[in-house]
Amino acid sequence: MAVFSSPRVLCAPSRTPPLLSLSLRSYKPTTLRPRYFSLSTHLRTKMEVELTAPNGRKWTQPLGLFINNEFVKSSNEQKLASINPTTEEEICSVYAATSDDIDTAVAAARKAFKDPSWKSLSGTERGALMLKLADLVSQHAETLATIECLDNGKPYTTALAENVPEVVNVFRYYGGYADKNFGQVIDVGPAKFAYTVKEPLGVCGQIIPWNYPLDMAAWKLGPALCCGNTVVLKLAEQTPLSMLYLAKLIKEAGFPPGVVNIINGHGREAGAALVQHPQVDKIAFTGSTATGKEIMKMASATMKNITLETGGKSPLIVFEDADLDLAATWSHIGIMSNQGQICTATSRILVHEGIYDKFTEAFRAKIQEISVLGDPFEETTFQGPQVTKQQYERVLSYIDIGKEEGATVFLGGEAAPQRGKGFFIAPTVFTNVKPTMRIYREEIFGPCVAIASFKTEEEAVEMANDSTYGLGSAIFTRDLNRAHRVAREIEAGMVWINSSNDSDFRIPFGGVKQSGIGRELGEAGLAPYCNVKAIHVNMAA
């Protein structure tokens, strides 16, 4: 497989408590109404197109590369198509960057980094721009959620209630931090005055995946802009539309030209050129572990600062004293949200043998109650299609592998097209899973979970840690002493106790082992985007 071809892994966004009232329905495939988006025959220019979604919302969709606050064609005018995963139809085609276009975008970012219009702004002034952008995102919430639903396949209710608010919260959080990222004075005695300042790195190349296009862009843009950097943001080729629309809001908010440049393009061409560019000071990437390793190799040539958030196969442990209804509820959220396309998805559930049967029945009932498949624009829908045909086929191939390995299909295990169309897969639960099985060890990245049993706490910890990944984890128990003890023993960047995947933009996010390098979100998310410079003053001079 070519390097950067179709990055597939992403992370779970910060979550507010789940809106279960939107999802309390019996599990059965719903029927898609023949409601499709429309493409206006009137093109304002070759750089934008008028679109209308199934919910009736209309907007002007940019198609170009956003460089220097303007949308431009790619140097050879090549394009890539964005496909609606619900109907398998093309939405529109956008311009795809070449290596020459990467040169142009990086040059714009480098110029902006040195220009007084950005470089001379105080932290307070940078923060004001970010707060203005947050306000604009909030004002355009319905349009952004509509685009995300159409282009990505996630339910509109989720995009509106969770994903767009996440963008607003992240921009407001880091906008508020922009004049509070202090250096310090260090007392070394009267002969010397020593202090530190935090300075931006320069031009940051950022590469985001397709499962949370808006959220992941905010996670990266927020701290980078807060610290005073400039950015070239490469979008996932599968889902470029929502961030191209948001680019218009960046200009409207008043950011100087070149501070934020947003490009579409294939990873093997545009992504590779960005990572290897000598004028890029930092690379931040969210995607597969395999691609992350290739990025490390390429970035090493110029010793770039890197942040990587890669794959996961997160365990969820249910002890014998757990609240079974609570465990079943959060286990469902932890794997079935976002069509299972979450890097922190708790896709390995480890259940004490004494309650194994009770838990699996409660878990199946919860899925049947909540996981309604159907048109993502319908309010009753909990699960939409997988994002692409490639991902759809990948998940189905793992379901076949699980069957061949001898695991029991406890629920689902098949494609679930709606009106004969769409990349829909029934929520799938495997029981009688052995730790040696591929469905237990490898990241599937879909609505598919493997449930195994354990006898003792020590065995549970050993099974949880028996993975090359170490991103997220979850523990269910009423014994808080045990909860804290096990949390310290699990090899993961994050542990949820009596919940799963309820991340928060104020709390660090990241993993260990082959799940990545560095942290995003919270105060810790600022460190990868600034240098600490030490200044020594000889007071005796």
Automatic annotation (TrEMBL):
<feature type="domain" description="Aldehyde dehydrogenase">
    <location>
        <begin position="71"/>
        <end position="535"/>
    </location>
</feature>
<protein>
    <submittedName>
        <fullName>Mitochondrial aldehyde dehydrogenase</fullName>
    </submittedName>
</protein>
<dbReference type="InterPro" id="IPR029510">
    <property type="entry name" value="Ald_DH_CS_GLU"/>
</dbReference>
<dbReference type="InterPro" id="IPR016162">
    <property type="entry name" value="Ald_DH_N"/>
</dbReference>
<keyword id="KW-0520">NAD</keyword>
<keyword id="KW-0560">Oxidoreductase</keyword>
<comment type="similarity">
    <text>Belongs to the aldehyde dehydrogenase family.</text>
</comment>
<dbReference type="InterPro" id="IPR016161">
    <property type="entry name" value="Ald_DH/histidinol_DH"/>
</dbReference>
<dbReference type="InterPro" id="IPR016163">
    <property type="entry name" value="Ald_DH_C"/>
</dbReference>
<dbReference type="InterPro" id="IPR015590">
    <property type="entry name" value="Aldehyde_DH_dom"/>
</dbReference>
<dbReference type="Pfam" id="PF00171">
    <property type="entry name" value="Aldedh"/>
</dbReference>
<feature type="active site">
    <location>
        <position position="309"/>
    </location>
</feature>
